[in-house]
Each structure stands twice: as C-alpha cells, then as structure tokens.
Design goal:
By secondary structure, this protein is of the alpha/beta class. The protein has nine helices and 14 strands. A seven-stranded mixed β-sheet has the order 1-2-3-4-5-6-7, covered by helices on one side. Helix 3 (105-126) packs antiparallel against helix 4 (135-145), helix 3 (105-126) crosses helix 8 (283-302) and helix 5 (211-222) packs antiparallel against helix 6 (240-257). The longest helix has 22 residues, at 105-126.
Length: 331
C-alpha cells in the first residue's frame, strides 16, 4: 500500500507501508521521494518488501523504473537502502565518511542481522520469565526485515559538502551521523527544502546510535534556512527551522530531566518497564527499546550527568548508585 503527496510539480512524496505483523518501530511506514526533471531520481529506494507499491507510485507519475537515473540515500538502513536491487540500472549515491564503505550491501545487511540477533540473545538469556522471549520470533523478524540483498550494488560515495543533481534539484550533502549508520541530510538551497532522513521531529527518535552527534547534527541543520522538512518517516513539515528547534529543545529537555528519573539506579530493562508500566512480551520490540535507551543513558554518563556501574544488561544508571542508602530505598 502507498500514499502519494505532490510537494511540487516535480517532487512527489511516496509513503510506503510495511508487511503486516512487523514489530514496531520496524513496521512503521517510510517515505521515498520521486524527483522528476532532467535526471529523474529517488531519495531512498525503500524496503525490498515495498517494491510493488513503489513501482505503482512511480507508474502513476507517468514514468517507469528505467527512467530512474540515480538514487540518493539518507542512510544505510534496510528501510532506505535495501531496495537498491530493484534499480540496478541507476547510479546509487551513498554517504561514506571514509569514501570506501559500504563495499558490500549484503555484508552490511548481514552485520545488522547479527547485531540484532546478538542483542536479542543477551536479552533472552537475562530475562528469567520466558514468556514471549524466544528466539523463534526474532529469527522470523530478521528473515522478514533483513532479507537477502543483491551483491551487484555498487555505491558512489558521497561526503559532506558534495553536491548531487536529483531531478531539477541541486542537493548539498550534509554529514549527520547521529541517527544511524551512513546517515546524511540533503539540502536544496534554492527551494529551502531539507531531506532530513531519520531525525525525529516529534518526540524521541525510534533509533539513535550516537547521541552527541545527533544533537550536533540538529544544531548544524538549524543554521540553514529551511522552509520545508522532508523526513524519511512521517509527515512533511512546513515550518522547517521552527520544527528543527522544537526537536532540539525536546532532546535537550529529555537529557536534562532524565537524571531525576534515575535516582534509584535502574538498569535499562528496569527503566523500560517503569516507563511503560510493563515489560514488552515481544522480544523484538524489547531489542529496539533497549538499544535506544542504552544509547541515551550512555550519553548521560559521558557528560557526567549520571554515573554507571556494572556491565552489559546488569549495568545500572543513576545519580546515587554510589550512595549506600540507595539499596535501602530500593527495598
């Protein structure tokens, strides 16, 4: 299923649904942008499961996949990059800080599979109650969300400051590594449009790999003149700079107020259960939540807002973990 939104005569936002049953946040819809003009292009290629819907949307615009001359990616996520195999005739532009990686799309996706599987195993072994905490559901998720991808993919590396033509737009590549691997934003100075990738404009991001870089990225983006924000997930925003400022304020507020919720030194799992009021039965959902909050708490430790003790899943975060009275208060 797909929905289209004509942003201009030559730019169409295509919102693509995922297969039913995928755990959140993996199951959320994502956006591909079709740019018409001198060099027809896509911003991101979607997930492999979405190709028929993407194909229908492209044909509704009066062209075929053969007309797509280039695809430009805002990250290396499977939601954005794994659909590349459906457009092998096109040139593929991928952000690469070292101008080398990713050398193999399948090796990159396989690394994502193994990282997800490793975290799931850690959580499964740590959780005493086995209800719903079986690796069978994890393997089914991995098969659906991280399917095999082509080895024929050859990416053209981009770095911050490079420019690339897409349709009628001249896009500047902005290095913004915080949200996920290989992340970049694309900026059209003429239209004051920003393709903002995985940055969350409403609430906490669903995934985040480097919190400091995430905050720095938002601060850098706020220095641009942005009238329209075009994210990889969710709706487009018309008041670009105001929306970026709101997103940054929300993140800073969370990081400044979070220590008050950690006065009893919880582990990440204990915090998730306290925050939600329950511990998710779905092990896949728990993996996503654990990775997000661990990154956020580790940033609080790095900036000396809280302390931490222990390793792996037993690692406790808080403002009073060295206070012997903390154990008394937890009883």
């Amino acid at each position: 299923m797909h929905l289209t939104h004509k942003l201009a005569d030559d730019v169409i936002q295509i919102s693509l649904s995922k297969p039913a049953g995928l755990a959140q946040p993996a199951g959320r819809s994502n956006n591909v942008y079709l740019l018409l003009g001198e060099a027809c292009a896509l911003i991101n290629a979607g997930h492999p499961s979405q190709f028929q819907s993407l194909l229908a949307a492209i044909r509704e615009a009066g062209i075929t996949p053969a007309h797509i001359e280039r695809v430009i990616y805002t990250s290396w996520d499977v939601d954005m990059l794994a659909g590349a195999s459906n457009f092998l005739q096109a040139d593929h532009f991928v952000f690469s800080a070292d101008m080398v990686e990713p050398t193999s799309l399948e090796k990159h996706v396989d690394a994502q599979r193994e990282a997800f599987r490793a975290t799931a195993r850690q959580l499964r072994d740590h959780i005493i109650t086995a209800d719903g905490a079986d690796l069978g559901s994890v393997e089914a998720f991995i098969a659906a969300y991280y399917p095999p991808v082509t080895e024929q993919f050859k990416g053209i590396p981009l770095r911050g400051g490079h420019f690339v033509r897409a349709g009628n737009l001249e896009l500047e590549v902005l290095a913004t590594p915080g949200p996920t691997a290989g992340h970049a934003c694309l900026y059209s100075a003429d239209r004051k449009w920003l393709f903002s990738g995985n940055f969350s404009m409403a609430g906490l991001p669903e995934e985040i790999v480097e919190v400091q870089a995430y905050l720095i990225g938002l601060e850098r983006l706020m220095k641009l003149s942005v009238e329209r924000l075009l994210p990889a997930f969710g709706q487009a925003y018309e008041r670009g700079n105001w929306t970026l400022g709101r997103a940054l304020r929300f993140m800073n507020h969370f990081l400044s107020s979070a220590p008050s919720a950690l006065v009893q030194g919880p582990t990440v799992l204990e915090f998730i259960e306290r925050d939600l009021g329950y511990r998710p039965d779905d092990l896949v959902e728990l993996v996503f939540a654990f990775r997000k909050y661990r990154a956020l708490f580790d940033e609080l430790v790095r900036t000396h807002n809280i302390e931490a003790r222990g390793i792996e899943l037993a690692r406790r975060y808080g403002t009073d973990i060295d206070d012997p009275r903390a154990s008394i208060r937890r009883r």
